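Subject — a protein and its fold
Fields — amino acid sequence, C-alpha cells
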Amino acid sequence: MDSSTAKSLLRFLRWPEQLKDTLRSAHTSEGRRESVAAHTWRLCLLALLLREEYSNIDFARLITICIVHDLGEALEGDVPAPQQMADEPNGTGKAERERRDLLALIEPLPGPLQEEITALWDEYEAASTPEAQLAKGLDKLETLLQHTEGDNPPDFDYAFNLDYGRKYTSQDPKLDALREVIDAETRRLAKE
C-alpha cells in the first residue's frame, strides 16, 4: 500500500469513528443510550451466531452488508423508526439522506472501494439479495431485542415494536421464531 492510499483510508476511518458517539433511541440495560456502533457490533454477532442456520448465505457478504448498513448515520445521526413514520410514511426521506451522507463519507476512498461500499449499501436498502434480506431481518431483530433489554423511559412505546420490521422477519421461519420470543417479551413489557 502506498502512502497516498494509506492516508485516504485513515482519512475515511475518521468519519465512521463518529458512530461510536452517534446515539440511537434504544437504551442499554444500564440506561445509557445505545450507539450506532454498538448496534452494528451486536448485529454482526447475531449474524455470526446464526451462520450455521443459513448455509446458503454468503456469510462474508452478510457481515459486510451489516457493517456498512448504517455508515451514513455518521454525519447526521440516526432517526428513530416512529419518527421516520411520522415524517415520511414511506421511509424514503431517511434512505435518501443516509445515501447522500454515505457518498460524502466515502469520498476519500479509492474509486473501487467507493463503488463496493455504495453497492453494498444499495443492496441492503433494496433488500435485493438473500444476504441483504437476512441483514434487514437481523437488523430489526437486534433493535427489538435491545428494546426488551434496555432501561427505557417510562413513555417508551412497546406496542410500536410489535409491528416494526415484521415484513423483514415474517417471511423467514428462523427469524420468525426469534421474533416470537422477542415479541412475547415485548408484550410483557407493554403491560407493565
